[in-house]
Amino acid sequence: MTQINFKHHFIPSPPLQQHITNNFNQKQRTKDNNDSLTLLLLHGTGGNEDDLIPVGQMLSSSASLLSPRGKVLENGMPRFFKRLSEGVFDMEDLKFRTKELADFVKEASNTYSFNLNKTIAVGFSNGANIAASLLLSYPETIKGAILFRAMVPFIPDSLPVLSGKQVLLSAGTFDPIVSKSQIEGLLKILQKSDADVTLKWQQSGHNLTQKDILDSKHWLSGRLL
Ligand code: MLT
Predict the structure, then answer these.
(1) Which stretches does DSSP call E strand in the chain?
(2) Would you state the torsion angle of the CA atoms of residues 58, 66, 41, 95, taken in this order, to the nearest 10 degrees?
(3) Which of 12, 97, 105, 195 could join 165 via S-S bond, C-beta 3.0 to 4.6 A?
(4) Can you tell me the mean pLDDT for 132-152?
């Protein structure tokens, strides 16, 4: 397994923070964190580990936040995997980077004592695409995902079993990067894999809007696991 080798932020949930401050014992910390939600925040192209922290805080005031920086640079812009052109992915790199991210998330859950079964990935654009890839390839690393402006990362040779996984697809009606057929394709793959999927169309382009946050917050509050 790789080390914790992503530059990242981990912001403990307020109850966990309290225990750290009060120097409570590890057993108590582990128990409390096992009960609380963690959001895995995955930024878009050109972003970094700071970008989605405010989004995570708006989605849940009680979740822990784990926010890594993508390790691939495209003209100096961080991403989570290489692409050949817009929307055309380097499949070999996607496979490698998805495994690397899965290892990081597993390792981080040990280091920071959070529960993978209470971890929801929140990804935007390139971050949503690697989150979808993580769900399809290593479903044991997350309980579900909120995918803002995602596309089909790859077509699996055989469908994974995603029963019990919860996914929100938040798509832009006027998105010039992600076509309607991409969204429908991803929806179909997730549904055929038995995930519990909700699709929300936003009156927007590729950009994230206030309505994305409101809908996601509402979706998440109905699923606080
Ligand atoms: C990607 O490369 O993941 C997609 O084209 C979205 C983007 O980052 O623009």
Answers:
(1) 8-11, 38-42, 64-68, 72-74, 77-79, 83-85, 88-89, 119-124, 144-148, 166-172, 196-202
(2) -170
(3) 195
(4) 98
Residue of 42, 90, 101, 129 with the most ligand 1 atoms within 8 Å of its CB, for mutation: 129
The residue written with tokens 């970094």 in the block is 48
- At 34 the pLDDT is 64
| Confidence tier at 35 by pLDDT (50, 70, 90) | confident
Pocket test for ligand 1, best of 84, 93, 125 (most atoms within 8 A of CB): 125
Residue carrying structure tokens 């927007």: 204
d(CA 39, CA 2): 21
Binned at pLDDT 50, 70 and 90, residue 155 comes out as very high
Q: What's the half-sphere exposure (Cβ side, CA atoms, 13 Å) at 64?
A: 26
Task: Extract the tokens encoding 59.
Answer: 């989605």
